[in-house]
Write a structure and sequence with these properties.
Blueprint: E1 2-6, H1 21-32, E2 39-41, E3 44-51, E4 54-61, H2 68-79, E5 86-92, E6 100-103, H3 112-121, E7 127-132, H4 141-145, H5 151-171, H6 176-183
């Protein structure tokens, strides 16, 4: 069994914002695989289904980005999922728009959602898919991550959909080193 968590903020006002990249790609993956994310548990929306013979739980925490850890911890504990089978999908200010990177462990890099997950899991040893949103240093960070993408930026995001959906499918059947070697952009 696998749990894939997309980070974001709930509510209409946050749809299509840079900080909701995790929600965006989880929704696409769910749609591609016929999984409906509508059930509620532990302050998260979730759906479950079978993908390539593996049971998958897709989660969108609903306590806002900075409070994602409690939701993640409750799902991991309830389903008794090993951290090797947990993947966190999130935005990353330090990566250019149009890029993504897999990491198997590490610091939060200042990302408050990851800081909270580390606090609740008690470790930095969990896998993540970082999706680049660039960083405009002329705009306050909070305003930037809660801002919406331009039309041109939306086109760039759409260009990532196919490789990221492929990556999420492969997460369920490849070991993580192979996955990183295949998908991490040089």
């Amino acid at each position: 069994m696998y749990i894939i968590v997309g980070l974001g903020n709930p509510g209409k006002e946050y749809e299509q914002t840079r900080h909701n990249m995790g929600f965006h790609f989880i929704d696409l993956f769910a749609s591609q695989n016929g999984i409906t994310i509508q059930k509620e548990k532990f302050h998260g929306l979730y759906g479950e289904g079978m993908v390539d013979g593996e049971k998958v739980i897709l989660v969108k925490p609903q306590l806002y980005m900075n409070l994602s850890g409690e939701v993640v911890k409750k799902f991991v504990d309830f389903y008794d999922v090993d951290l090797d089978h947990l993947l966190i999908v999130h935005d990353d200010l330090d990566l250019p728009l149009g890029t993504f990177r897999l990491k198997k462990q590490g610091s939060s890099g200042g990302h408050n959602g990851l800081k909270d997950i580390e606090k609740y899991l008690g470790t930095t040893l969990y896998k993540r898919l970082k999706i680049g949103i660039s960083n405009d240093k002329t705009i306050d960070t909070k305003d930037y991550v809660l801002g919406k993408f331009s039309k041109a930026d939306q086109d760039v995001i759409r260009s990532l959909e196919e490789p990221i959906l492929s990556l999420l499918n492969d997460f369920l059947c490849l070991d993580f080193e192979t996955l990183m070697n295949h998908y991490n952009q040089k």
